[in-house]
Amino acid sequence: MQVYTEQKKVGKQSVLMGKKVAILAAATVAGPKESLGPLSNFFDRHYEDTILAEKSFERAECRMLEEACYLALGKAGLSPEDMDYYLGGDLLNQVISSTFCARSLAIPYLGIFGACSTLAEGLSLGTMLIQGGFAKYILVATSSHNCSAERQYRYPTEYGFQKPGYSQWTVTGAGAVVLGPAGGKGPRIEAITTGKVVDAGEKDPYALGSAMAPAAADTIYNHFVELKRNPAHYDLILSGDLGGVGKKLNEDILAGKGFDITPYYTDCGVLIYYPHQKVNAGGSGCACIALVFLGYYYQKMLAQELKRVLLVATGALHSPTTFMQRESIPAIAHALSIET
């Protein structure tokens, strides 16, 4: 197996990858609310209910994740046996959706957790494994489900609990990616900036946009500084799931640091639903960035409508236990520069 030596550490957090690793295929599976949103036509599979004829919401989430994985493998013309590793993660305790999916796939498995930043974490680690010569093909996948996440982190949806206007709606869906050696038309992962944990002191589990925005701004700022770039370097800067509140805060923080990202910037949590769908500040969850980037923007990159994208996935790293202990909410963001 060829070992690449072109990777280069830049500063404390960033790595130049040499464009040797590409996204060979991507697939998305969407839940009912997401299937009624503005990007519905770009998702591979849709469901009209949240239970999927399964016995629980957790089993339904696992089923969507499995389907996304097999769809991505089919698009790449590969099988589970061709994969060197499966990197998967989700929002549930012990990443059970990804682990049970790994049971079905029977691929060497690395379970990861970055909350809603899990997709970017998986893409980063998978790219490094291939770039370092430790693998040829890697499957990366993630999922979230509104009902399973609400049951774990807040109140089950059956309670009908009224949420504040700054809260976000956990996306029901799954996305999967096949990474492999560049050479075809798939977009290449050109640089990675790994985030640091940033704690802004937010303690409200509904105010996730406010909790995550400082982490997003920190990672984007260090990406620009370490790689000597500015917002105009990219056709699009896409954050994961800050929603309307977090998106504005992210813009304000970076403007205070001398970077005006607004002309190039949008957020998946803002894009995935229509305003009339009553999602308050927007979408969140691991599947938020998975559906929007892998479903919509990945297709635009394949069509050469976008040539450089900075993908910034954010995650709130709290748990029901830390909330009950009145801890604040640590957050993280990972950034990937993706080019056609």
The largest sheet, given as strand count, sense and whether it forms a barrel, is: 8 strands, mixed
Roughly how many Å apart are the termini?
25 Å
Give me the secondary-structure category: alpha/beta
Helix content: 25-40%
Q: In CATH, what is the homologous superfamily of the largest domain?
A: Stage V sporulation protein AD
Quick check: average pLDDT? Answer: 94
Strand content: 15-25%
What is the strand tally? 16
Assign the CATH architecture of the largest domain: 3-Layer(aba) Sandwich
CA radius of gyration is 18 Å
Low-pLDDT windows of residues: 1-5
CATH topology of the largest domain: Peroxisomal Thiolase, Chain A, domain 1
Any idea of the CATH class of the largest domain?
Alpha Beta
> What is the string of SSEs from the N terminus onward?
EEEHEHEHEHEHEEEEHEHEHEHEHE
General form: globular
Number of helices, where a helix is a run of at least 4 consecutive DSSP H or I residues: 10
Number of domains: 2
